[in-house]
Each structure stands twice: as structure tokens, then as C-alpha cells.
Design goal:
Radius of gyration: 15 Å
Order of helices and strands: HHHH
Structural class: mainly alpha
Helix content: 40-55%
Strand content: under 5%
Oligomer: single chain
Distance between the termini: 28 Å
Number of helices: 4
Shape: elongated
């Protein structure tokens, strides 16, 4: 998993060095282009606790249906505000 994450980050930054990820890079770029003013940033997990928490709840707790897509819950809003 860690290799995949580092590979995807490297592929987005330097796609020519990661030819096996070209399809995924194109998909990421298409999604990013649909959101005006968006950009990709690499940050430490401590700086993005909310995303880390959501990712871990899906992978470790098996929550395959994202509760985020179902609407904003008050506790999640508070989590991001803190």
C-alpha cells in the first residue's frame, strides 16, 4: 500500500518516470481539471487528520460505503473544525 501511494504521487509529479500508472494519472488529472482552482498538495498525515481518519475507517473498519458521500454529519464537521 505504501509503495502504491508513493508511486501515485511520483506518477502525478513525473508521469514519464511511471509509465505503468499513466491511466491513473490521466484519471486524477481529469478529476482535478473539473474543479476550478484545484491543485494537488502532499502533506503529512498529521496535517490532514480528517482525510487520514476517513481513509482508515474505510480500510480498517470495512466501511466501504462512504458516509461522506451521504451528507455532512455534525460530528464530522466538528472533527474537521478542531
Amino acid at each position: 500500500m505504501c509503495y502504491m501511494v508513493h508511486g501515485m504521487l511520483g506518477a502525478v509529479e513525473r508521469p514519464q518516470a511511471w509509465p505503468s500508472f499513466l491511466h491513473q494519472v490521466r484519471e486524477i488529472e481529469l478529476g482535478k481539471d473539473r474543479i476550478e482552482g484545484s491543485r494537488l498538495l502532499v502533506v503529512a498525515s498529521q496535517a490532514n487528520r480528517g482525510a487520514t481518519f476517513i481513509a482508515q475507517s474505510v480500510t480498517k473498519q470495512g466501511l466501504m460505503r462512504s458516509y461522506v458521500q451521504n451528507g455532512n454529519s455534525p460530528w464530522l464537521f466538528e472533527f474537521f473544525c478542531q
